[in-house]
Every structure is written in structure tokens, then in C-alpha cells.
Amino acid sequence: MAGISGALISIVLVHGGFVDGSGWEGVHQILTKDGYSVTVVQNPTKSLAEDVAFTKRVLDAQKSPVILVGHSYGGVVITESGTHPNVAGLVYITAFAPDKGESVNSLIANPAPGAPVPPILPPQDGYLALDKARFAASFAADVSKAKAAFMADSQVPWGVDALNGTITAPAWKVKPSWYMVATDDKMIPVPAQRAMSKRAGSTVVEAAGSHAIYVSKPKEVAALIERAAKEVSANAAK
């Protein structure tokens, strides 16, 4: 990778649970305008193994080093798939960054007193959904009312098997990482974000925003991704 420039880095974006890849549209527009090749993975979020397989197929197709970006549960996916040889760095956007043997379920098993409780409804046929009436407040409080309502109505069922999927070899142990803490997140507690990013040794930035900060503040999110791309390029050139 010696001598590569930031614009020769490819960006792969991985969405989280309850949503699909369309939420990355604003980030995608900025990155592509700035000259990056961007691919959005459309994971089915039925199981971690399947989502990792989908993501690795996208990584296989990349012709240049990749900054692999995950939001929320997408952080679990990039942690497991990010050991792929094409991945040069990881970016977590208010995301889970599990260690070996951990899963979403293990990370949320013992919330701290006073931590926000996501309005997840009881599973139906092995899938989870968020209470539509409480979706905006918990997931997308800083997104426009109309967009938050659409996100609530267009939810993607999140498989219980995906929450149970465990990490075998955390990519953040062998790849550089960056992490955006969303300080108004009501889905993943802010102290948990800070603890995971510290454990991973990530370069951390904090920004005021909801769990849907990738939708509400695409400029800030894109800026962190571009920073990661440029720092990976600079390090490769040394």
C-alpha cells in the first residue's frame, strides 16, 4: 500500500439493525463527491455469519485498500469481517466493538443503572423490531420528524441469531480503528461506547447526535471516514 493516496482508498459502509443501507445516502454523496469509491453493503441482518459472508463478498471485489465502516450492529460485522486482507482500517460509528467471544447480547446483558433502555419489542418468529411510537426518541431524535417516521415504518426485522453471533478474531486487534461516540445516543449507552473504543485503542471523536448520527450529521461522519483514509495512506507511505 506504499504511496497510495486517500482518494485511492475504497470505502465500504455497513448498516446496523432495524435499518438498511439507504441511511448511508448522505455520507455516500459526500464521499463520492470527494473522489472515493464507495460501496454500501445490504446485509439481511438475519445472522452474524450471513452478514459477515455478505460483507466479505463486497470486500473481495474491492480493487484498492478499504476503510470498513460499521454503524451500531454493523460494528460487530466489521469486527468479524475486518481481518480480510483488503481492509486497511476500521471506523465505528456509535457502534458495538466486541472482543473475542462477545456478542451484542453479551454486551447489552447488564446495563448500568440509569442507562437508556431501547424500546425493543418481544421477538416474533425469531426477529426483533422497535416500538414504532418510540422509534424516533430512541433511535433518531435529531432526524427530521418525517424521516424518523419513515425509518420507523420501514424497519428491517433484526434476527435474534444476529444478536447472538459471537466474535472469533476481533479485527481491531490487528487493524487501526477510529470511533465516533454519539453523545445523545439512546440505544447504545455513551459510557459503553467510550469503554469499547478505549479497549479497541481507537482514535476517538465525540459528536452531539442520536443513534442515527450517520443520517443526521453525514458531514461529521464522512469527515471521520476521510480522516481514517488519509491517516492509513500516510502511514502506508512511510
From TrEMBL:
Domain of life assignment: Bacteria
Keyword Hydrolase: yes
An MF annotation (GO) of this entry: hydrolase activity
Keywords annotated in UniProt: Hydrolase
Membrane-spanning intervals of the chain: none
Pfam families: Abhydrolase_6
Domain AB hydrolase-1: 11-223
Hydrolase found in the keyword field: yes
InterPro entries per record: AB_hydrolase_1 (IPR000073), AB_hydrolase_fold (IPR029058), Sec-Metab_Biosynth_Hydrolase (IPR052897)
Coiled-coil residues: none
PANTHER family the UniProt entry points to: AB HYDROLASE-1 DOMAIN-CONTAINING PROTEIN-RELATED, ESTERASE_LIPASE_THIOESTERASE DOMAIN-CONTAINING PROTEIN
Name recorded for this polypeptide: Alpha/beta hydrolase
Native source organism of the sequence: Pyxidicoccus parkwayensis
